[in-house]
Specification:
This protein is of the alpha+beta class. 39% of the residues lie in helices and 22% in strands. The radius of gyration is 22 Å and the shape is globular. It binds acetoacetyl-coenzyme A. The site of acetoacetyl-coenzyme A has 26 residues, from helix 2, helix 6 and helix 7.
Length: 445
């Protein structure tokens, strides 16, 4: 069977940084540790005045095409995933193609373009569409550009304001990829939920606490469904488990539940039984409540065991490093988590080639999807080419007053003028409005 997956990844972070502990927490009257320890977030990225979902996506895609030495004729699809779109008809992928055509001789007239929407899981769904297109043999030797781009802004003074972020992840999907091959097996957990939604409005209506419960419930369903296709999973099966990461604290909650599920009936449960007992089984309890209480107690104990801590430090913690510095990028978030893990392995000489990742995506509204990926020989080189560390380091650190201006600048109802804090350099910038209220872009040398 043809091997299809991700051949290259490029990341573009919004160029501004809001320090959550130093700048945001004091203004909110919060203890800084709510952010650094509770949520696991140190900073959020924001777009400068000339950045938006199009510029961030186009800049990531441009770097990717340049690095791989690709021309427009090599690209058979451009799929954009976003939940920050500003047009209900014209897709962001056409704007991004228009930007790229400013800097290439050829054009993308024969590339199929689209926009995927299902909250944060749309990035993974676009990846899926691209893989299926190649597996179906419809690509005529060409690859697919998948771009997840978002400005995850929440209304001022809402609880979600703590978990904002902005950036784009561009992925190049081909046969015989350099980074990861995707499994054909997938598991889904999907239900009609109203935990987080944007009914024709820019900023989400969100029930934060409920959204966390829905995330965990759908993840669990999708793992069960995945196991129907693959058989039981064991923690040793996967080198890393990148989760959708709205904030690292959410992943902490999901990881321990996943670990509990995977060790049930295994040698690990057996070894831990002397310390924390066996996992509660439903048939031994008179009521759901009593069973749930026993599970909570078991999970608390499990979290404190050496076996769990060692697994978490090896398989989960490395997936969180970029997120903790940039916040939630919605559709790009799980792809940042995968990249963080690969980067950690490359930097620490961990030989991942041939090893598997279990990738756990989630979108509010709500759906989770789980599949596995096999890491390819070329991953170290592909990851080493990334400039994400420099980009994170070079962000302009905004004050709280500047943050208020930036939020207003990107609020579609206000869209106030704002002098940029940074200088564009060899990149696409937002350049004002056209006669049909379309957004205009230029490449700045
Ligand atoms: N020291 C250490 N920890 C502290 C602390 C301190 N001084 N103060 C608070 N904390 C801990 C809290 O105990 C809590 O941790 P636990 O949940 O483990 O108890 C954590 O820090 C956050 O504190 P709060 O619960 O008080 O924070 P909050 O009420 O401001 O809300 C939130 C947090 C609900 C996540 C909110 O930020 C929100 O609504 N975010 C947007 C929705 C979201 O991201 N949901 C996630 C699932 S949905 C999804 O994944 C899709 C998506 O991308 C949006």
């Amino acid at each position: 069977m043809t091997s299809v997956g991700i051949d290259a990844i490029e990341i573009h972070t919004g160029k501004l940084k809001l320090d959550l502990a130093e700048t945001f927490a004091p203004e909110m009257g919060d203890d800084p540790e709510k952010y650094t320890k509770g949520l696991g977030l140190h900073a959020s990225s924001f777009p400068d005045a000339y950045e938006d979902i199009v510029t961030m996506g186009a800049n990531a895609a441009h770097r990717l095409l340049e690095r791989k030495g690709l021309e427009p004729a090599d690209v058979g699809r451009i799929d954009v995933a976003t939940e920050s779109a500003f047009d209900n008809s014209k897709p962001v992928s056409t704007y991004i193609a228009g930007c790229l055509e400013q800097v290439y001789d050829g054009d993308f007239h024969h590339a199929n373009k689209g926009e995927r929407k299902f909250a944060c899981i749309a990035g993974t769904q676009s990846l899926d569409d691209a893989v299926n297109w190649i597996l179906a043999g419809r690509n005529r030797g060409r690859g697919a550009l998948v771009i997840a781009t978002d400005t995850a802004l929440y209304a001022r003074d809402s609880s979600g304001e703590a978990t904002q972020g902005a950036g784009a992840v561009a992925m190049w999907i081909t046969e015989d990829p350099d980074i990861v091959e995707l499994s054909t097996e997938q598991g889904y957990g999907s239900a009609d939920e109203t935990d987080f939604l944007k009914p024709n409005q820019q900023f989400p209506s969100v029930d934060g606490k409920r959204s966390m419960q829905v995330y965990l419930a759908r993840m669990r369903e999708s793992l069960q469904d995945f196991e129907r296709a693959t058989g039981a999973s064991h923690p040793d099966d996967y080198a890393f488990i990148p989760f959708h990461t709205p904030f690292p604290g959410m992943v902490r909650k999901a990881a321990v539940l996943g670990y509990r599920h995977m060790i049930r009936g295994t040698d690990i449960e057996e070894e831990l039984a002397a310390d924390i007992g066996r996992q509660p089984r439903r048939e031994r309890f008179d009521s759901d409540d009593a069973f749930e209480d026993a599970i909570s107690e078991y999970v608390d104990g499990l979290t404190d065991t050496d076996a769990y801590r060692e697994w978490y430090d090896a398989a989960i913690q490395p997936t969180l490093s970029i997120s903790s510095q940039v916040g939630n990028w919605y559709t790009g978030s799980v792809h940042l988590a995968r990249f963080s893990a690969l980067k950690h392995a490359a930097e620490n000489g961990i030989d991942l080639a041939g090893k598997r990742l279990l990738v756990a995506s989630y979108g509010s509204g709500a759906q989770a999807e789980i599949h596995s990926e096999t890491v390819q020989d070329g991953f170290t080189e592909a990851v080493a080419a990334s400039t994400i560390d420099e980009q994170i380091e070079q962000r302009y650190d905004i004050s709280f007053a500047e943050y208020e201006q930036v939020h207003d600048r990107h609020n579609h109802e206000k869209s106030v003028e704002l002098e940029p804090f940074t200088q564009p350099d060899a990149e696409f910038v937002f350049d004002g409005w056209g006669p049909m209220n379309e957004r205009k872009y230029t490449y700045v040398e």
